[in-house]
Design a protein that fits this description.
There is one protein chain. It is built from 7 helices and 15 strands. Strand 1, helix 1 and strand 2 form a beta-alpha-beta unit. The radius of gyration is 21 Å and the shape is elongated. The protein is an alpha/beta fold. It has a single domain, classed as D-Amino Acid Oxidase, Chain A, domain 2 (2-Layer Sandwich), CATH 3.30.9.10. Strands 3, 4, 5, 8, 9, 10, 11, 12 and 13 form a 9-stranded mixed beta sheet that branches.
């Protein structure tokens, strides 16, 4: 007798939600639906979600944490193995530090490939330490569309819908469903478009979720082959601005950028555009228009970060929600039950590079139920 399928609603179609659905779809007993307003085949210019605007490479971020180290390692290896598909590319990289003693805190050197310390004569002025290694990058639009195509072929259902509460998400899956909350955040700018994330989703309402505003420039520069980033270097960035150059498989390059916490502004700041271009061309003169580079776009995305770090855990939520302001989901009387929710949100700038590791952990949580 065929085992009864377990209905699972994945709320959110960004890189985290798609990766979770992909991993769960390997188990035939899981019946998966992805519910989101923004989908990979459209809304790739929507600022209501972060995935289309990401750098989408693997890059060292923050200090060592055992849990995220596991996520990062699994994700890096998965993406590295995808290079033959053409969706992901090997990416020679350099990271510059102001502090020459920073080498002692490099926790990620065994994740990347070909790690080495650069000789001092190869460093720009004012840089105390240079590290070289090979990492990976992808292009968000292509990668997200590929993920959806793969999921559809696996029988995953996509429901294009804005959901206002965890209760409404549960109703879409039926009486025995579990919900995986892989939403981002919501901004006042996006609220008019009914984009609801973990900060305002009824039943979650996590006020620890906040935006980190990222402004970037995309250029066409297939002749630029090396990723360069600067860490804590006063010569190249302020406390809210960062310098990075990330080539992509299609010949485009993303130039950054900003890390502006609690900044909800989704408009392009053209003073920042100038500073980004000046910093990046100082590091890599081949990015100058005179060398054949073409500017394609200036972009702003809001990274969905969380105070205290990402949230990946199981929670039991009693339904119906006690609020009298829960939007109707058209199912008549609201159901009373204990809903199992698995949260997976708050990854800030590390969504792509945490994605497959997080998906694996979520799959373990689902299997434990």
């Amino acid at each position: 007798m065929q085992k009864q399928q377990k209905p699972i609603v994945v709320l959110g179609a960004g890189v985290i939600g798609l990766s979770i659905a992909y991993t769960l779809s390997s188990e035939p007993s899981n019946k998966i639906s992805i519910v989101a307003r923004d989908m990979p085949e459209h809304h790739l210019d929507s600022q209501g979600w972060a995935s289309p605007w990401a750098g989408a490479n693997w890059s060292p971020i923050g200090g060592f944490d055992e849990r995220t180290y596991k996520w990062e390692t699994l994700t890096f290896n998965k993406l590295w193995d995808m290079v033959p598909t053409g969706l992901v590319m090997h990416l020679p990289s350099r990271v510059y530090h102001e502090d020459p003693q920073a080498l002692s805190s490099i926790w990620w050197k065994d994740i990347v490939r070909n790690f080495r310390v650069l000789p001092s004569e190869d460093l720009p002025p004012g840089v105390g330490l240079g590290l070289a290694f090979t990492t990976i990058s992808t292009k968000p639009a292509r990668y997200l569309r590929w993920m959806k195509t793969e999921l559809v072929s696996r029988g995953v259902e996509f429901i294009s819908k804005s959901v206002g509460s965890i209760e409404e998400a549960a109703a879409l899956g039926g009486t025995d469903s579990i919900v995986i909350n892989a939403t981002g955040l919501v901004s006042s700018h996006c609220a008019a478009h009914s984009v609801v994330g973990s900060r305002s989703l009824l039943g979650v309402e996590d006020l620890n979720v906040y935006p980190i505003r990222g402004q970037t420039t995309i250029v066409e520069a297939p002749h630029v082959k090396t990723c360069v980033s600067v860490v804590s270097n006063a010569l190249f960035q302020s406390s809210e601005e960062a310098t990075y150059i990330i080539p992509r498989p299609d010949g485009s390059v993303i130039l950054g950028g900003t890390f502006q916490s609690d900044n909800w502004n989704t408009s392009v700041d053209h003073k920042v555009v100038r500073r980004i271009f000046e910093r990046c061309t100082a590091l890599q003169p081949d990015l100058l228009p005179s060398r054949g580079t073409t500017i394609l776009s200036h972009n702003v995305g809001l990274r969905p970060a969380r105070k205290g770090g990402p949230r990946v855990e199981i929670e039991t939520i009693q339904l119906p929600l006690s609020s009298n302001f829960v939007p109707s989901h058209g199912e008549g009387e609201r159901q009373a039950r204990a809903l199992t929710v698995i949260h997976a949100y708050g990854f800030g700038p590390a969504g792509y590079q945490n994605s497959w590791g997080v998906a694996s952990e979520v799959a373990e949580l689902v299997a434990s139920l």
